[in-house]
Amino acid sequence: MIVVTGATGNVGRPLVQALAAAGEKVTAVSRRLPAAGVPAGVQVRQADLAEAESLKPALDGARTLFLLLAGPLLLAGQDPRAVLDVITASGVRRVVLLSSQGARTRPAAMSHSRLRAFEGAVQQAGLEWTILRPGGFYSNALAWAGPVRSQRAAAAPFADVALPWIDPADIAEVAAAALRDGGHAGRAYELTGPALISPRERARAVGDALGTPIRFTGQSREEARVQLLQFMPEPVVDGTLDILGEPTAAELRVSPDAGQVLGRPPRTFAEWARRNIAAFR
Questions:
Q1: Are 5 and 12 in contact (CB under 8 A)?
Q2: pTM for this model (two decimals)
Q3: Residues 9, 10, 15: CA angle, nearest 5 degrees
Q4: pLDDT tens track of the chain, all 281 residues?
Q5: What is the CATH number of domain 2-136+168-192+254-262?
Q6: Which residues of 91-130 are buried (b: 16+ CB within 10 A; e: fewer)?
């Protein structure tokens, strides 16, 4: 049995689908039960990592776990060691943790301290572990869906700062490989797309997929900050903007890890835009 937490998210949903398609027995766990879209045969359980004990029923009979933190859990919650105690006591023997590139590239940043703590707890729990450290997600462009539909417009800060973002579906496929194959144990993978791409270039790619130009507007850091604070904790917003505006050399690096695990190049943003263009119509 493979348990997937965060099963309704940008990575969790395609991960559940990939595992089910491969014939694995899967339990999908989320704080809110999904209304639809769960593959046939997948068990669905409601649990919240903020209360690790709530995971116990979902972990019954599981040997492998995909562990994802989101929202307020990125900054607060139970001690990571207490969460890992519940996981190990349940009989889980392999954990794949979705962390973040910033947990390594910005060790002093408060925005990534919680992920660093979970990385340490997973590595010290006596389990087979794999850590995934992606940079930005292509799916962040879905924040433009409303303005693109209504005005054929998009806005973002740091318009021409290019970063090697990645398709969440590629992250999910790497996670599936690590969950199914113990050969990935003890590895930390830095996951990026195949090339650097800026916000202005992403907007152009969405327009190309639509077949109509998108009017792009550069935002100030403060304008973007106000917008992001509507759905992200303040330290995470500030840490995110630091990476977007002043990336380090490590954050600009295109990593080979995703391609090596997948056995093919990671998908481009243009491919993601074409696959998800219905959201922008």
A1: yes
A2: 0.93
A3: 85
A4: 999 998 988 999 999 999 999 999 999 998 877 656 788 889 898 888 778 888 899 898 899 999 998 765 665 666 888 888 989 999 999 999 999 999 899 888 777 788 888 999 999 999 999 999 999 999 999 999 999 999 999 999 999 999 999 999 999 999 999 999 999 999 999 999 999 999 999 999 999 999 999 999 999 999 999 988 988 788 888 888 999 999 999 999 999 999 999 999 999 999 999 999 999 99
A5: 3.40.50.720
A6: ebebbbbbbbbbbbbbeebebbbbbbebbebbbebebbbb
Q: How many CB atoms lie within 10 A of CB 61?
A: 11
**Beta carbons of 47 and 41 less than 8 angstroms apart:** no
Residue pair 240/228 in contact by the 8 Å Cβ criterion: yes
Structure-block tokens of residue 120: 């340490």
Domain locations along the chain:
2-136+168-192+254-262
